[in-house]
Amino acid sequence: MFIRTLLSPSYILCKTKSSFVKLLVCLCFSLMAPPLFLLSLLLSFLFFLSPTLSTNSEGNALHALRSRLSDPTNVLQSWDPTLVNPCTWFHVTCDSNNHVIRLDLGNSNISGSLGPELGQLQHLQYLELYKNEIGSKIPKELGNLKNLVSMDLYGNRFEGGIPKSFAKLKSLRFLRLNNNKLSGSIPRELTALSNLKVFDVSNNDLCGTIPVDGPFGSFTMESFENNRLNGPELKGLVPYDFGC
């Protein structure tokens, strides 16, 4: 009974969002295809379709980014949402499975803002957006990029606080947020980023004290200069957000 339910056309049509799959199901049942043959056909089709669905999702996220940006020099002209996947777009690098792993838009004369859609690029390893005119707040959804190794957002107009969600970026090695308009304190959650080798928040409007735990014990004072920071925290004596 369970297998019959799984193979019933109404169940499959209910569970799938692909119009092509729906058409395939209807066609097979109209031809009275044997259920086991239908199941095999559907599984094979979905197996080959899955990379395309993934890259289409990533392409949608990147196209949403493009809609938020002003691009006077047309560096994003190749970002055509009608293409099969974004791996043919300039400034986008994919791996052998057609997953987006790198976004290179540094020094591209773009402005605007970032949106939560970037958090859908689950395979992204390098996010390079430095030296542009991008503003507004840094989306907390960037903390969902669990494979991220490097995030370069320096030299923009980002404001607001550093997202605490960045503490989930366990693979992160390089985080450069310098030369923006960031404010608030440095989240203590970031001390859990054991792989972090480079951290630069100089030339912002950050306040409070500088963390000393975890990787922060090895960062030089140049990484924190030209803020309203009160120096390294003295545990038990001064609250970390003192002066904010």
From TrEMBL:
Keywords, alphabetical: Leucine-rich repeat, Membrane, Repeat, Signal, Transmembrane, Transmembrane helix
Ranges annotated as spanning the membrane: 20-49
Leucine-rich repeat-containing N-terminal plant-type domain location: 56-95
Keyword flag Membrane: yes
Record-linked Pfam families: LRR_14, LRRNT_2
Name the record gives this protein: LRR_1 domain-containing protein/LRRNT_2 domain-containing protein/LRR_8 domain-containing protein
Domain of life according to the entry: Eukaryota
SUPFAM superfamilies: L domain-like (SSF52058)
Organism of provenance: Cephalotus follicularis
Alphabetized InterPro entries for the sequence: LRR_dom_sf (IPR032675), LRR_N_plant-typ (IPR013210), LRR_R13L4/SHOC2-like (IPR055414)
All copies of domain Disease resistance R13L4/SHOC-2-like LRR, residue ranges: 103-203
